[in-house]
Amino acid sequence: MTLMGIFSLLGGIGLFLYGMSIMSTGLKNAAGDKLRVILEHATSNRIIGALVGVLVTVLVQSSSATDMMVISFVNSGLMNLGQAIGVIMGANIGTTITAQITAFNLGQYAPVILFLGAIVFLFIKKSTYKYVGAIVMGFGMLFVGISIIKSAIAPLAESPEFIRILSGLNHPALAILFGILFTALLQSSSSSTVIFQTFAVQGLISYRVAVYLIIGAAIGSVAPNILASLTSNRNGKRTAILNLLFNIIRAALIVALINVFPQILDGIVSLSPSNIGRQIANTHTIFAVFAVIVELPFAGQIVALSQRVIPIRPEEKRSFEDRKLQYLVNVTQMPPALALSYARKEITRMGRIAENNLQMSISAFFNLDTSLFEEVEQVEDTVNYLDHAIINQLVQLRTLDLSEKDQNTVSMMTLVVADMERLSDHAENIIEYAQEVYSKRAQLSAVAVQELRELADDVLRSVDLGITIFEEEKFELIPQAEALEQQVDDFQKEIVNNHVQRLMKAQCDPLGGVVFTDMSSDLERCSDHAINIACALSPNTNY
User: Fold this and answer.
1) Long-range contacts of 306-314 (CB under 8 A, 24+ apart)
2) Do 419 and 532 contact (CB within 8 A), yes or no?
3) Neighbours of 352 (CB within 10 A)
């Protein structure tokens, strides 16, 4: 292949990938936030989860995009591993639709499709039509890219060196390995499958070699998810491992099956005997559906295996227990008075978890205890999960036959949940400041540290008192809470003024001064949230 031929091939692949990206973006914009809502509400029913995975992946034209959304949901606690595996399995079916589409020979119509899409996208102002134009334009780019790839690959049929390389793929193990590496390099199983289809159409590889290549491509498709999971928590990493385990098991099952029963491939070929591109697309889809049907009943075992690969730590077990609602369960089946009482208990439990996280972050800041950094992040995930779970139950609670006073109480409780969630958000911010100090990028003077310690002690007292008032309805303590909150406000202003004086006298590190100011501001806001919590249900206080 000449240098220009290589450039042409790379350009075709690039245009194909860009076309898929534009299609995906257009589809996601047209759907708005509905895709994320659909995924977020995927139930514990794994069959429904698999169907959701198929639907979302067909819409976004990328199993990696679906899997990354799933990883983010698991990472944030909105979805558990049992829910995630069903969606991941469904995504592996949904991604085969691209190969089915590209099996149509639409190359000659692609420029017209691209032109029409561009006209709609560029010259029609209404956003809905622009999204449709983007989808059509991406569709056209996809087929123009395929045409360029085919033209670039055609000369390879006459290249003895390239034919010699591909002849080595006649060994199934080498073909699978090539499929894994090639797909991991492209970061897209759809594009690698299209290229394998093109190899087959050009006569460079046989159908049976293509079969093993797409088996490897399914494993290689996990590479983007593994990379994405590196920045997630351990549960997020397990989600990527789930996908990898599913595809490894899928590959082993299919390789064993087609070697024991080679008639399976003959049957697939007979569905479209004169179209090898369609044969490969059908194989891709049939294998994916087969794998989901076989492995879905064993999803629990695959989840358990992922937890053996990345063992569950003791603090994670505690986190799992914390994320289970203990009181607000089946609220619609409770008497309203009991449901309200349980709501208070559940919200208080969440508040104590958030309070403990704030205490832990403050301890990590002053002691520079790096072992607490990750734990604060994990507890923050737990608080976020409880925030969503409790709010959902409070919404259910409003459907009961409540008096106007009780309806107002539920509304106030919803606001309290938000305040408690913000306490943990501030804990996360404090960990970021601790990392700045630990890395030596910011330095604090002894005076600054002592001032922050005193402020933090007052804030922790304020938070504890606010939650106690809410929990025990000790509204007579509200004046004490207000006085403590005012004390925090006054002291925060005082130490910030002291800090400005130190800066003017060049007695303070500038970056350390930024950390000092931000830290004191976060602490003061925690006290504001505490007084909100304390006064929320008071009959004499407007929230």
Assistant:
1) 306/81, 306/238, 306/239, 306/241, 306/242, 306/245, 307/81, 307/238, 309/238, 309/241, 309/245, 310/234, 310/237, 310/238, 310/241, 312/234, 313/234
2) yes
3) 15
Question: Is the model's pLDDT at 76 over the cut of 70?
Answer: no
CB-based contact 523:459 (threshold 8 Å): yes
User: Nearest CA to 158 among 169, 148, 146, 166?
Assistant: 166
- Tokens for 26, please give them: 């257009």
Residues 268 and 283: their CA atoms lie apart, in Å, by 7
Average pLDDT, the chain: 84
**What gap in Å lies between CA 419 and CA 244, rounded to an integer?**
39
Determine contact, residues 18/141, Cβ cutoff 8 Å: yes
450 Cβ contact partners less than 8 Å away, ≥ 6 residues apart:
none
Comparing C-alpha atoms, which of 237, 223, 153 is closest to residue 189? Answer: 223
C-alpha span between 14 and 134 (Å, rounded)? 17
Per residue in 221-245, pLDDT (tens digit) is 888 778 777 767 788 888 889 999 9
Percent of the chain with pLDDT over 70: 90
Angle of helix 234-260 relative to helix 207-220, nearest 10 degrees, comes to 160
Residue 427 gets which letter from DSSP? H
pLDDT tens digit string along 25-55?
A: 776 666 555 666 666 666 667 888 888 888 8
pLDDT at 418 over 80: yes
- Mind listing the pLDDT tens digit for each residue in 421-457? 999 999 999 999 998 888 877 778 888 889 999 999 9
CB atoms inside a 10 Å sphere around CB 3:
7
Rounded CA-CA distance 62/68 in Å is: 10
Phi then psi dihedrals of residue 177, to 5 deg:
-65, -40
Angle, in degrees to the nearest 10, between helices 510-535 and 404-438: 160
For residue 341, what is the DSSP state?
H
Identify the sign of the CA torsion 8, 14, 20, 23: negative
Which of 521, 358, 509 lies closest to 437, judged by CA? Answer: 509
pLDDT at residue 198 is higher than 90: no
pLDDT the model gives residue 543: 46
Q: CA 245 to CA 292: how far, in whole Å?
A: 13
Instruction: Please return the burial class of 4, using the count of CB atoms within 10 Å of its CB with bins 0-12, 13-18 and 19+.
Output: exposed
